[in-house]
Write a structure and sequence with these properties.
The protein contains 13 helices and 52 strands. By secondary structure, the chain is an alpha+beta fold. The strands form eleven sheets. Strands 29, 30, 31, 32, 33, 34, 35, 36, 37 and 38 form a ten-stranded mixed sheet that branches. A nine-stranded mixed sheet has the order 13-14-15-16-17-19-20-26-24, with helices on one face. It has an eight-stranded parallel barrel with strand order 3-4-5-8-9-10-11-12, surrounded by four helices. Strand 13 and strand 14 form a beta hairpin. Helix 3 runs parallel beside helix 5 and helix 7 packs parallel to helix 8.
Length: about 850
């Protein structure tokens, strides 16, 4: 159990039911709201602070995802609630599409598999000491995104549609009827009605309603009608209503019978369709709308949050810091990937989090949970980069590191050089990578928990090895991350164990051959006891916190063919040795790996042996005498037992065979130090642009790629959005943003010698202006305005003429109007400051009122010798 937990955790097999806590037998609620609007535990009066995730297996797309892999849904719940507990999470949002799938058009509850799974989930979460926010009405279609053609959902949600829920009397009557019936429903696994379930501490009336702030009285009436429906059942749980769909509804909530507000946050937008690159920490500095005076005495809980389309180790701790700064007492990430489907990211394309398959992000979520528990409410930590240190927590975009370095805990999402202040006082270690306490060559997540002096429990999970972009459209037959179990060396350095200790496997693992030497031994995924001599595991407590001593949930096996993922730069400098890396992914290492390279066109392949440098990553160095100015093709061949597979396609044989006929190889360029650096190529880059408005990447009217009538090259067509009805003014800014971090990094050695930016463009009419911005990784931005008419021009802008300005944070967060503009980072932008080209991360092209459109053929960074 976590400190302060109020429900006795009962661990059980699938067949065992949990016993109701004593509080339920007294008929009381576990929490209350004090006069200052703070949620407190009733028995201790301490502030509540909970962290976890939405879990959606019971209905909608996650329910169907489980079916696609033919998994046992109740077993999945058992596994995933164990993972919640393993990560130290104590919060869960019950996201239930009962309004679509477990009700009829009048709101009558339908007893079906969805409802049964909800009951089972509540019982299993309760047994793990997890407290719940119940959100029984979702409004959005349960058939998104994979079953849009299915119109058979029986519920009132589909019958009325989201737009009518707050205004149609019949729709309101259905919601009231449904709330009454589902709250009175008795859970057969706990024998307690949902209205009386002590583990459910909050009720969210409706998920993301269609707000009508212009109708104050009508909005109050709607909220009160739903609140009254809850109270008429006898339910005394705290009632919350969504505010972040439109903060103008705040006054209606304040005047209503709702007791608190729920809000969401997606600071990196939604549905990019690919994994994002770059530093997004500037977007987590603040959430000012939660500090509106009309919300002053209303408790706040985060019903959904994520850093969509990212797997980084920094964003969750940063967001938890800001949640506490605005007074949030509960936060639930959306949405946890079930162990059985996480290899495919099959549930929600833009979200991806699982303990096994996203270990770096999972550790960051563990750290974020600790931030919710340890940081005080309403304490500000300043802007970026000042706020990268908060309490015992630290985040750094360099190294993709989030960490908690405290007296009792050492948690890190990537390898760290930080040392615990008192190693003898450590109680918990969780990591991905290595530290002063654990050195590990595998790529999976691991845990060390102290049971008593000289006795530790080690839990190691398989390597999580990415093989495809997990944020592309998913398929049930497409694995994006492999979980591979193999032995790796591990070194554990703990004062009470010393350099020589006993390793005893408890679940799934094997006793290390050769024993322990200087704290180093070989480990396979599983659970172990590390101890001084003479410890019998049978004498140890059966549970460690909320996890069984021998409990371990291994991921399902997969049968993916070998994969090679190139980790090369787009360019290399002539006259230097070039280091090329690749990830070679298979259950066991190949006998050898060779990279073959040839000049194009017409060159012959030449092989260079690759060596494993860490995990699944291989590297080779190509001498400068081999590479000259020009373009090169390369392939990688893995050899095993006398046979060869050549990638990218996995073709049998090697490229020097007389009959080799492999498809298109990978490519890189070799350039001189003064070769111009192409920053934007419409033909290859347009698909990775982020726009001011979420979803505009799919709107062909506002931008498109066409072919120039002059050169035949692809051109980027950008227009300022306009309301043809004349009711709304054009936006104050419309920006297309491209992350150019990898291109800049490839030229780090000579990038500071760049002298100008060259833009080939034309206006869609006379007197157009394109604003070009170079944004550094700390958000500091440098801008220049390029006036242009309707003829094609090659404009050369000296870098010295760029001035400090404002960039924009894209993809645009939701909600995130306050996060749109970003000024210089703290301490930047003063007299004498200049662009730090080696830190430039984004190129931004912007239109503003007075201009309505341009076409851009190229943006290139020039060097002095090429003027």
């Amino acid at each position: 159990m976590l400190p302060g937990s109020r429900i006795t955790a009962v661990f059980f097999t699938v067949a065992t039911l949990c016993a109701p806590p004593a509080y339920a037998q007294r008929g009381g609620e576990l929490v209350y709201l004090d006069k200052q609007g703070v949620i407190r535990w009733r028995d201790t009066q301490k502030e509540v602070s909970l962290f976890g995730a939405n879990y959606v297996l019971t209905t909608a797309s996650d329910y169907r995802a489980a079916g696609y892999v033919h998994a046992d849904r109740k077993r999945m719940i058992d596994e995933d609630m164990a993972q919640f507990a393993r990560m130290g999470w104590d919060g869960l949002r019950l996201t239930f599409w009962g309004d679509w799938e477990s009700s009829d058009s009048a709101g009558n509850l339908i007893a079906n598999d969805h409802l049964d799974l909800l009951d089972y989930l509540i019982a299993r979460a309760k047994a793990r000491g997890i407290y719940m926010l119940f959100s029984p009405i979702q409004l959005y279609g349960s058939n998104w995104p994979d079953a849009l053609a299915d119109t058979t959902a029986p519920g009132f949600g589909r019958h009325f549609g989201k737009g009518r829920m707050g205004t149609d009397p019949a729709a309101l009557a259905a919601q009231v009827n449904y709330l009454r019936q589902i709250l009175n429903h008795v859970n057969p696994y706990t024998h307690i009605a949902l209205k009386d379930e002590p583990a459910i501490v909050f009720i969210e009336l409706v998920n993301e309603p269609w707000h009508h702030p212009d109708d104050l009285q009508g909005s109050i009436h709607y909220i009160d009608a739903l609140s009254d429906a809850v109270r008429r059942t006898g339910c005394q749980k705290l009632i919350f209503y969504n505010v972040s769909q439109d903060f103008q509804i705040a006054e209606a909530i304040r005047r209503s019978k709702a007791q608190g507000v729920t809000f969401g946050w997606y600071p990196t937008g939604l549905n990019a369709g690919h994994e994002l690159e770059g530093n997004y920490l500037r977007g987590t500095d603040a959430y000012p709308d939660l500090l509106r005076p009309e919300l002053a005495r209303l408790p706040r809980i985060v019903y959904e949050f994520d850093s969509p389309d990212l797997r980084t180790g920094t964003m969750y701790p940063a967001m938890a810091r800001t949640f506490r700064a605005v007074g949030a007492q509960f936060a639930a990430m959306f949405a946890y990937d079930m162990l059985a489907t996480a290899s495919r990211n099959l549930g929600w394309q833009t979200h991806y989090l699982n303990l096994v398959y996203t270990p770096r992000k999972a550790v960051s979520a563990i750290i974020a949970a600790e931030a919710m528990h340890r940081l005080p409410r309403l304490q500000a930590y300043g802007p970026y980069p000042q706020n990268t240190q908060f309490g015992d927590f630290h985040i750094s975009d360099d190294g993709d590191l989030g960490e908690l370095v405290a007296r009792d805990a050492l948690l890190y999402s990537s390898s760290t050089s930080a040392k615990p202040p008192d190693p003898a006082a450590l109680q918990h270690v969780a990591g991905h990578g290595s530290s002063s306490t654990v050195t590990y060559e595998g790529t999976g997540i691991y845990f060390l928990d102290k049971i008593r002096q000289g006795v530790w429990r080690l839990e190691v999970y398989p390597d999580a090895v990415p093989i495809r972009d997990p944020f592309e459209p998913p398929r049930a037959d497409k694995v994006v991350t492999r979980a591979i179990s193999r032995a790796w060396p591990i070194t554990v350095t703990l004062p009470d164990l010393g350099p020589s200790f006993i390793v005893q496997p408890l679940a799934a693992g094997f006793a290390p051959p050769g024993g322990v030497h200087a704290g180093r031994f070989s480990v396979t995924p599983g659970v172990y006891i590390l101890s001084t001599p003479g410890v019998d595991p049978a004498t140890l407590p059966p549970f460690v916190g909320r996890v069984g001593l021998k409990e371990y949930h291994a991921p399902p096996t997969d049968t993916v063919a070998p994969v090679v993922v190139p980790l090369t730069a787009p360019q290399y400098l002539a006259g230097r040795n070039a280091t090329l890396r690749a990830r070679v992914v298979d259950v066991t290492d190949p006998d050898s790996v060779t990279l073959f390279v040839r000049a194009t066109p017409g060159g012959f392949y030449r092989g260079f042996s690759m060596r494993r440098v860490e995990g699944y990553d291989y590297s080779t160095s190509i001498p400068s005498t081999v590479l000259h100015n020009g373009s090169y093709d390369f392939v990688i061949t893995a050899f095993r037992n006398g046979s060869a597979l050549t990638f990218p396609a996995g073709t049998s044989g090697k490229p020097t065979d007389w009959n080799y006929n492999g498809p298109a190889p990978w490519r890189f360029d070799v350039v001189t130090p003064r070769t111009p650096l192409r920053l934007f190529d419409p033909g290859s880059d347009a698909a990775r642009l982020a726009f001011t408005r979420i979803g505009d990447a799919g709107r062909r009217g506002l931008f498109r790629v066409a072919l120039s009538h002059t050169t035949g090259e692809p051109v980027f067509h950008l227009e300022l959005p306009a309301d043809t009805s004349g009711r709304s003014p054009p936006p104050a800014d419309y920006t297309a943003s491209l992350v150019i971090k990898r291109r800049i990094a490839a030229r780090q050695e000579t990038i500071t010698a760049a002298s100008d930016l060259r833009v080939r463009l034309r206006g869609l009419g006379a007197q157009q202006v394109l604003h070009v911005t170079l944004m550094e990784d700390d958000g500091t931005s440098w801008t220049a305005a390029l006036p242009v008419d309707s003829t094609w021009q090659d404009q050369v802008v000296p870098l010295a003429s760029f001035t400090i300005g404002r960039g924009v944070l894209l993809p645009e967060g939701f909600p995130g109007e306050w996060n749109y503009w970003v000024g210089p980072a703290e301490g930047r932008g003063g007299p004498g400051d200049r662009p730090r080209l080696e830190h430039v991360e984004r190129l931004q092209l912007s239109l503003r009122p007075g201009s309505y459109g341009v076409e851009v053929e190229s943006v290139t960074l020039g060097f002095a010798a090429n003027r």
